[in-house]
Write a structure and sequence with these properties.
Number of strands: 7
Strand content: 25-35%
Largest sheet: 7 strands, antiparallel
Shape: elongated
Number of domains: 1
Radius of gyration: 21 Å
Length: 198
């Protein structure tokens, strides 16, 4: 029973690697939109709608600075079919097998009177905690608690040692969100290549 599961996971990982290269995604789009116009309003609302549609909560909304950011959210796992915050099979399985979270930053830049560019950055972070000593079957019941000693000798874990580590960007999701933003704003000017949805 274990062999078919391992084989299917391996095939899924290989299939995820056959998608577009990370450098092939379009993650920013030139635009020409006057700051005080209905098109600018539509773009600004389109950014917020695209993030809300992905289940992201907004953190910073600064129209004057041209920045919208979201709060970090744990990424979609295999049983969460209703969500879509990963865009390739590789990212899908990575988020399923590791605690991964993402947060989004959208920048709209310009020269003062008009916006010239929309850029999306999706930050990825992996959860890191000290390893616990797992030296008996009884330790299984305490594995996710704080009472097991660490492998480095501390007698007890505390949450202050746990942290989220930056592991780079997610260009596939950046391209997906950019396309959704431009569609919502009616400003689709170019195509964004995207990977297959898991």
């Amino acid at each position: 029973m274990l062999i078919p599961i391992v084989a299917s996971l391996s095939l899924a990982a290989v299939a995820g690697c056959l998608g577009p290269r990370r450098s092939d995604y379009v993650t920013s789009q030139p635009v020409t939109i006057e700051n005080d116009s209905t098109r600018a309003d539509a773009l600004w609302e389109g950014i917020q709608d695209a993030l809300h549609d992905r289940g992201l909560k907004l953190d910073r909304v600064d129209r004057r600075g041209g920045v919208i950011t979201s709060l970090p959210v744990t990424s979609q796992q295999f049983f969460e079919w209703w969500r879509h915050d990963v865009d390739t099979r590789e990212d899908f399985w990575e988020a399923t097998l590791n605690p991964i979270r993402r947060w989004v930053e959208v920048n709209v830049s310009g020269d003062g009177d008009r916006w010239n560019d929309v850029a999306v950055v999706v930050h990825k972070q992996r959860y890191s905690a000290p390893d616990r000593q797992f030296n008996s079957t009884g330790a299984l019941y305490q594995y996710f608690g704080t009472s097991l000693p660490t492998t480095t000798g501390e007698s007890k874990l505390d949450s202050e040692r746990d942290r989220w580590v930056e592991i780079g960007r997610d260009p596939a999701m950046e391209a997906f969100l950019l396309a959704r933003i431009l569609d919502a704003a009616g400003a689709s000017g170019g195509s964004t290549e995207r990977g297959e949805q898991p």
